[in-house]
Each structure stands twice: as structure tokens, then as C-alpha cells.
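Researcher: If only I could read C-alpha cells as easily as an amino acid sequence. Walk me, if you will, through where the backbone shape changes along the chain. I have put the entry right below:
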Amino acid sequence: MTALTLSTAAAPGLRADAIVIGVAKGTKGPVVAPGAEAVDKAYDGKLAGVLETLGASGAEGELTKLPAPAGFKAPLVLAVGLGAEPDASGTADAGYGAEALRRAAGVAARALAGTRKAAFALPVDGPGALEAIGEGALLGAYSFDTYKENGRPSAKAKNGKAPLAEAVLLGGKPRDAAHKGAVARAVAVCEELNRSRDLINMPPNDLTPAIFAGIAQAAAKEHGLKVQVLDEKALAKGGYGGILGVGGGSAATPRLVKLSYTHPKADKHLAYVGKGITYDSGGISLKPAGHNETMKCDMSGAAAVFAAVVAAARLGLQVNVTGWLALAENMPSGSAVRPGDVLRMYSGKTVEVLNTDAEGRLVLADALWAASQEKPDAIVDVATLTGAMMLALGSRTFGVMANDEAFRSALHEAADEVGEPAWPMPLPEHLRKGMESSVADIANMGERMGGGLVAGLFLREFVGEGITWAHLDIAGPAFNEGGPFGYTPKGGTGSAVRTLVRLAELTAAGDLG
């Protein structure tokens, strides 16, 4: 991954391939953002005019390249748009927001693929800004190239260019504890988030449930976590009918992975549950043509949970975090679960399967009940669960449902704080009636309208009594089928990782009660 360093050096004297500066959209034209004073001075204070002449406006994500002034050791100045100039009303908190800095750094890092070193002279008013710029650079520089050049892992990507090798954050003090801590957090979170992107982008022939479980075991050994893997025999012995039912049609047998991080002084326990369908054909209820090609991403929830638990361990958070990865491959075959079958779940409840493509809720139900047995303070499940949520919120926003309004609000605020678009969604009680079954305790399908909410109501049935729970439906933002934007690449995005890490931090700090 791109190296991240701090420097108090002045931009003109720094040896680098490029100097990245910010430019904002002012009321009368582009405005050079703080951090670029030395660069502006080298242009005789006329840099904003030069940029405007070149067509720059300061709009978010806009890039303008120009040759560095005489005397600079870097040959290139890269101006990146920050969006609207902050309100200059004199209020204490007026400044560029973390997300604006994160996105700008991401755009610049992606544009600088093929370079060894870039200095980021973006606005820095404290550790938070440094962390945001660092996150943007690390996430924006990401590329997945394992399968390129005849299968040989290669550093090349983005039109054959290697990702940016080093990002130097100007304005950061290498010996300042807060500044070093900000960089350390950015590195830990982004390395694990990028690992989740790698998993999501892996082809399903190379990421079966067993292989995913093995990756989790290796990470547990590396970071001092406890890990338990239940294979198909252990699942059968334990009565995990949901996971076994979904995975029964595939030659790649299912797994349930429990990944545990514990802190000796922790007095709170969070459980994260992730949907890990390593490939989803729809099963017997086969998906129509055109809906299969990206279904390797249906394990994005499990990838997010995996990354968040490891990140919590790397950060040493004073909270216990347990991750449950419900892993299966949903395939049609003679042994696959059929519409009309009844599964006995780990909780003892029976489920009539009306649609085998509503499989995520079945594996999550078993994992949610398993997580509930440990009586955690809260459970959060994460899943690419329903197309209905994409219809409701689009491709960049995930839905948040919960059995506790305050907890739902806290999760929404945590997501907003880290720059992950989310929106609180209800769990209307009248929709529960649609899942009534004449032969089982509940059916895995209900009313078509409000399908994302129906899925949330189904999952709630498998949460232990008295346990605070929330459900994140990341079906939209988990996999970007369009072009890259900000620090978000094409393909797997790592959606919800930063929200889960932030929730763990808030819990460790005692800010969630």
C-alpha cells in the first residue's frame, strides 16, 4: 500500500514528483486553499488567476495540472478542487470538512498513479485534517491487479501505471504525538479496508467459503485474535439449518467463522455479523441474465466485519469485538434448497423458503442467533441484502434499521462522521404479517413493496431478547459498477468498514452509554 509520511518541509524545497494543492470554488472564481501559500507566492500571488485561465473553477474533484515554478524541486503542481469555499463568517469551526479533504486527496492520489512520491499541501488545521487527507490518499491510490499480466501479481494498474508509492503530508509534524497517532489510525483502518476490497474483488473460484475462512485464520494469527471455524460437519452437528440450507447446493461447502478481539480492560462487547455469500447465483430461484456478473460481491458484509475486527485489534481499542462471518455459496444443483422447503434454524425456529435468492437473511439468521448467545451489548449485521434498498436509496447510500431508535441514530451519526452516506430506515410492524407461513414459524419472503424493510423485520426475529441490534443494508454502495470517484474505486468499495470501526471507538470511549 502507499506509504504515508509527515513533513514540515516547505513545498518548494521538497523532492517529489508532484505537489498537490487545493483550490476552492469562490463567489468570484477559484480560490487557492490554505496549505498552498508557498506555491502561490512562487506564482507572485497570482496562482488563482493562472488556474482560472486554465479552466479551473474549484469544483469538487476537478484536476488541473501546471508546471511547477522555477526553483521547485518537484516538476508538477496538481490543483484539486475542494468544492465550495467554506463560510468565512469568522466562526471557530469554519474550514474545509474532513470529507472534502478525503475526497480531494483520493482524486489526486488516483491521478498520480505511476509516480513515486507526491507532497500533499492541502489545508491542515489539526490531526483530524491530516487523518482525512491520509485516508483519502491511501484509499484513492488503491488498485486491484492480482490477476493482470498473465496471472502474475503486479504493481501495475490504472493504464499500466503503478499506484502512488508515497504520500507526504505537509503541515504534519513527525514528532507530534497527535499527528503521528492520526497517521497511524489512517494506516490501520485503510490497510484493513483495502484488504476487504481485495476480498470483494477476488473471483469466486478463488474465494470459496473455506478459502475465506483460511484468510481469517491467518489474520487472526498475525494480529493475536481468537478464531473458530465451523465446517459443514460442525454446522450440521450444531443445527445451523440456515447456513447449511443455503450452502447445500454447492460443492464449496459453507463455513461459520467467529473472530474475536478482546481487551483486558474492556467492559463493553460488540458483535458484528456479516453476510458472506461468496457467489450468489440465486440458487433454484436463478437470477436473470445480466444480474450474475457481479455476484462475487455478495460477501461484502463479511469482508467489512472481518476488516473492522482486525482494525479494532490494530488500534488497541478498549472494547471487545466479535465478528461472525456467515460464509456460503448459493448454487443450483440436485442438493440445493428448493422453494417450498422448510429449514430448521439454529434458533429452533422453522423457515419456509419461498425464494432461494433471499438467502442472505437465512445465513445471517443463524449467525445472529449464535452472536446473541454471548449476550453482547449490541449486535450490528452488515449485508448486501436487498435490491429494494438500492431502489430506495440509490447506489451510494446504505440503509440503517434497528430495534432501538437511539442506537440507529448513533450509527447514522457515526457513518456521517466518517464520510459514509447512510440513511435511517423504519421497521413497520404491519409488514411482519406478510411473512406468515401456514407450514412454518416464518417465511423468508413477505410483501414485495418495502422489501428491504421486510428483510430487516425477518432478521429481527433472530436477535436475542433484550439485545440492542442494528442492520446495515449495503447493497448499493458495496460494489461500484461505474467509474471511480473521490477515493472510491471501481469494484469493491469496503463500505461500512469505517462506520463499524468508529462505532467500536465510540463504545470504547463510553460515548454510547
In short: Residues 177-201 form the longest helix (25 residues). The two ends are 36 Å apart (CA to CA).
